[in-house]
């Protein structure tokens, strides 16, 4: 397992990912704005927005939206005004499933990807997106979103029945990560813990299907990855914190 390097926490970038399950209702947008004001992330990645308009977020005037139609799909990327930002290239899915953004943030190049995967043929979909990412990727790669599948059915699902049902998709998921040299940031930092990002009221079960996937080259910059408690959405916010610069440890001469 890769070992993450020590960091200085004084210079960091915080990215939040959340499936909002629709933002057409005003009180849900208000709840989102409350979360934003509380966490103050540098980058916000939203999935299942069901929304075709720009969001009224004065602190996040740089916005990128991939929409499909009202009450279906939709992904969004928001960049905080305080961030020194330059967009180089963007690829938006016309079906509202993903955004791939190549950009410079605070003098470092990133490829940021927000994904809302379908609830069937997830690994096939992810494979197609990863190929598109490979074609335009530059700099530090960060992929996040609702992938609608678990990486480890024994650790990432509360129900033993669904564990058996999702074994094949989990295996294909792991194979894709190996092929593209990607790592599950939360699991790297919490190797033995069980936590979940989605509650299914229909099946009365919990699962971890929302991820931050990082390239091997991003491991030295990874400080923290946290799953927050469920609040107004049926998905939890997941927060990734990256170091802007690495602080070397050891004696200096």
Mind explaining what this structure looks like?
The chain is of the alpha+beta class. The chain has one domain: Deoxyribonuclease I, Chain A. The protein is 21% helix and 32% strand. The chain is built from five helices and 14 strands. It has a six-stranded mixed sheet. The protein has a six-stranded mixed sheet with strand order 5-6-7-8-12-9. Strands 10-11 form a two-stranded antiparallel ribbon. Strand 10 (198-200) and strand 11 form a beta hairpin. Helix 2 (122-136) runs parallel beside helix 4. It starts with 11 loop residues before the first strand and ends in a 10-residue tail after the last strand. The model is unreliable at 249-253 (pLDDT under 50). InterPro entries: AP_endonuc_1, Endo/exonu/phosph_ase_sf, Endo/exonuclease/phosphatase. One of its GO terms (biological process) is base-excision repair.
Kindly list the characteristics that best describe this protein:
single chain, alpha+beta, Deoxyribonuclease I, Chain A, six-stranded mixed beta sheet, 5 helices, 14 strands, 32% strand, disordered C terminus, EC 3.1.11.2, DNA-(apurinic or apyrimidinic site) endonuclease activity, manganese
């Amino acid at each position: 397992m890769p070992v993450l390097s020590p960091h200085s926490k004084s210079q960091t970038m915080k990215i939040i990912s959340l499936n909002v399950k629709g933002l057409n209702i005003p009180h849900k947008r208000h709840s989102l704005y409350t979360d934003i004001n509380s966490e103050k992330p540098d980058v916000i990645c939203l999935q299942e927005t069901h929304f075709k308009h720009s969001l009224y977020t004065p602190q996040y005037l740089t916005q990128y939206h991939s929409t499909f139609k009202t009450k279906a799909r939709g992904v969004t990327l928001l960049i905080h005004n305080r961030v020194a930002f330059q967009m180089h290239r963007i690829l938006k899915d016309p079906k509202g499933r993903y955004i791939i953004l190549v950009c410079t943030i605070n003098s470092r190049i990133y490829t940021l990807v927000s994904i809302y995967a379908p609830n069937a043929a997830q690994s096939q979909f992810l494979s197609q997106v990863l190929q598109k990412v490979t074609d335009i990727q530059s700099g530090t790669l960060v992929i996040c979103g609702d992938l609608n599948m678990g990486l480890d059915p024994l650790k990432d699902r509360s129900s033993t029945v669904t564990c058996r049902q999702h074994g094949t998709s989990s295996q294909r998921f792991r194979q894709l990560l190996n092929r593209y040299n990607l790592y599950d940031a939360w699991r790297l930092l919490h190797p033995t813990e069980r936590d979940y990002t989605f509650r299914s009221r229909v099946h009365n079960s919990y699962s971890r299907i929302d991820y931050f996937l990082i390239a091997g080259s991003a491991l030295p910059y990874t400080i923290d990855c946290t799953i927050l408690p469920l609040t107004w959405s049926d998905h939890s916010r997941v927060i990734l914190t990256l170091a802007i610069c690495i602080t070397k440890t050891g004696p200096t001469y």
